Amino acid sequence: MSLTASPDESNAAQHNVRQAEVSAALARVLPRSAILTRREETAPYECDGLTAFRATPMIVVLPETETELAATLRVCRELGVPVVARGAGTGLSGGALPHRAGVTLSLAKFNKIVKVDPRSCTATVQCGVRNLAISEAAAPYGLYYAPDPSSQIACTIGGNVAENSGGVHCLKYGMTLHNVLRVRGFTALGEPVEFGSEALDAAGLDLLAIVIGSEGMLAITTEVTVKLVPKPELARCIIASFPTIESAGNAVANVIACGIIPAGLELMDRRMTEVAENFVHAGYDLSAAALLLCESDGTPEEVEEEIAAMTQVLTESGASRIEVSRDEAQRLKFWSGRKSAFPASGGISPDYMCMDSTIPRRHLARMLLAIQAMEVKHGLRCVNVFHAGDGNLHPLILFDANDPEQFKRCERFGADILEASLELGGTVTGEHGVGVEKLNSMCVQFSQAEREQFLAIKRAFDPEELLNPGKVIPTLARCAEYGRMLIHRGMLPFPDLPRF
Amino acid sequence: MPAQDTAIARLVDHIESARARGAALAIYGGGTKSFYGEPPRGEPVRLSELTGVSSYEPSELVVTARAGTPLRELESVLAEKGQCLPFEPPRFSTGGTVGGMVAAGISGPSRAALGSVRDYVLGVTLLNGRGELVTFGGQVMKNVAGYDVSRLMVGSWGVLGILCEVSLKVLAARPAAATLRFDRDESDALAELARWRALPLPVHSTAWHEGRLYVRLAGARAAVQSACDQLAGAELAAAEADAWWESLRDHTHPFFKPAESELAMGECLWRISVPATAAAFDLSGRHLVEWGGAQRWWRTRAPAEAVRRAADRAGGHATLVRAADKSPGAFSRVPEPLLRIHRSLKDAFDPDRIFNPGRLYADL
Question: pTM, whole model, 2 decimals?
Answer without folding.
Answer: 0.96
